[in-house]
Amino acid sequence: MEFNWSILGWIAGLIFVYVFGLVEGRGKGYKKRKAEEEQEKRQQPPPQPQTITVDDPGLLRIKNENGALVLDLDGARVSPIALLPEQRKRLVEILNIMRPWLDASQKPIATMATPLAPSQPKPVPVQTAAPPLRSQPTPQPSTPRPAIIPPEDRPSAPANSIVTQIDTILQEQLKGSALEERGVFLTQSAEGGVIVFVGLTRYHGVDEVPDPEIKAAIRAAIKVWEDKYTPGL
């Protein structure tokens, strides 16, 4: 029996055409997908730069976090139950800066002018003897009280410091005097120097105080302290 090589040739040709078509189709499909992906990339808008907002806490900020109030002082979180002396002093200074806004008087609200009634003929007045005029006392303008720092909010020096001892003597001497309402008190700087407060104004040293009466009262308190703690020196 002879093998028919022509049939084998036809079968091999069909297999070759099938495999070639399959490979060619996959190649065209891959190229088509790549072209579509490139087209989609060109159509997509370029990414926009993101703006980063920097949080500026300022000098003093109170926030509500999960129903609890927290305090940021100079950009740092502080604890109300463990407030350091320098943090308390800084907080008092910021509150003193805000005090002029709290003490400022409100401006009167301008009222609308009411329309004038139509003019009526005035009756002719009858000449009568005028009663003698009584001199009225001239009202004296009230002097506004100067803004001062309450004693509980004043920055204090260490209890055993010389500045604290002199300030204690000064406050005793100012009681009942005209200077008591001026809010004069002494405290200590970070370098150990003397700071004088007159109301909301701070002076670095007794010599910077322009009021001679206040300066004399402070020097009198210093003299009492010297006689008490350094007698004979």
What are the main properties of this structure?
38% helix, alpha+beta, 233 residues, three-stranded antiparallel β-sheet
Structural class category: alpha+beta
Shape: elongated
How would you state the average pLDDT, rounded? 75
Question: Order of helices and strands, N to C?
Answer: HEEEHHEEEH
Count all strands and give the number. Answer: 6
Helix tally equals 4
CA-atom Rg in angstroms: 45 Å
Q: Please identify the oligomeric state.
A: single chain
Low-confidence stretches: 106-119
| Helix content percent band | 25-40%
Strand content: 5-15%
- Through-space gap between termini: 147 Å
Strand order, largest beta sheet: 1-2-3
- Biggest beta-sheet profile: 3 strands, antiparallel
Explain what you see.
With 233 residues, the chain is α+β, with helices and mostly antiparallel strands. Among the domains are: 60-101, no CATH class; 151-229, no CATH class. It has 4 helices and 6 strands, in the order H-E-E-E-H-H-E-E-E-H. The chain has helices at residues 5-43, 85-103, 162-174, 212-229, and strands at residues 60-65, 68-73, 76-78, 184-188, 194-198, 201-204. Strand 5 and strand 6 (201-204) form a beta hairpin. Helix 3 crosses helix 4. The radius of gyration is 45 Å and the shape is elongated. 5% of the residues are buried. Mean pLDDT is 75; it is low at 106-119.
